[in-house]
Give the backbone structure.
Amino acid sequence: MSAVVRALVAQGAPESSEPLARHLLQGHPMWGGQDRWFDKDEQSWICEGDHSPREVPLGDHLPEQLRAALEACLTPG
């Protein structure tokens, strides 16, 4: 959780952001938190949730232009 708090603070959230971090880590109230794993080839975290645009294959349900834009913004570099 401390990594999430640090990330929130780095983006301008107050130092006391632990309750927000805890809330974010719980996941969505309708489907809860989802398992994630780091794909070394893609160099990104993949969410195994059915509603995630980062599921495998990445954004498969999106039109090609939106899929390419999503992939570009999620790829480090």
Summary: The helical segments are 2-10, 18-25, 64-74. The radius of gyration is 14 Å.
